[in-house]
Design a protein that fits this description.
The chain is mainly beta and 114 residues long. Helices cover 9% and strands 32% of the residues.
């Protein structure tokens, strides 16, 4: 398999790229976080998700304090190379609130979808 060079990725003006994190087994979206070049390199080396916290302005290895590591199965860039999807095997909840996913607050569901 041919992998793209991370230099092809388009980081924004703050040096960040959004990363959608998805459970490799269930395909459920767990969270949306941001990576910079350093956190992406750490993620690739450790095969554990590492992000850049925009609020704390520091690197954040997911699971370092909670024990809920996310073991990386694959990372794929979108067609514009400005967003990532990480498929992971989570050790536990993804959300800091203790829920499996950060996306637990319904906004809309079409009636015919039920």
């Amino acid at each position: 398999m041919q992998y793209i060079d991370i230099d092809k990725l388009k980081f924004d003006e703050k040096g960040l790229i959004p990363c959608i994190v998805q459970d490799a087994e269930t395909k459920r979206v767990l969270t949306l976080a941001y990576m910079n070049r350093e956190s992406l390199k750490i993620t690739l080396e450790k095969k554990l998700t590492c992000f850049f916290s925009r609020s704390r302005q520091e690197l954040w290895l997911k699971g370092e304090t909670s024990g809920n590591y996310q073991h990386v199965i694959s990372i794929t860039a979108d067609c514009d190379f400005d967003a990532l999807v990480a498929l992971v095997r989570p050790d536990g909840p993804a959300c800091h609130l203790g829920t499996f996913s950060c996306f637990e607050n319904p906004v809309f569901t079409a009636e015919d979808a039920l």
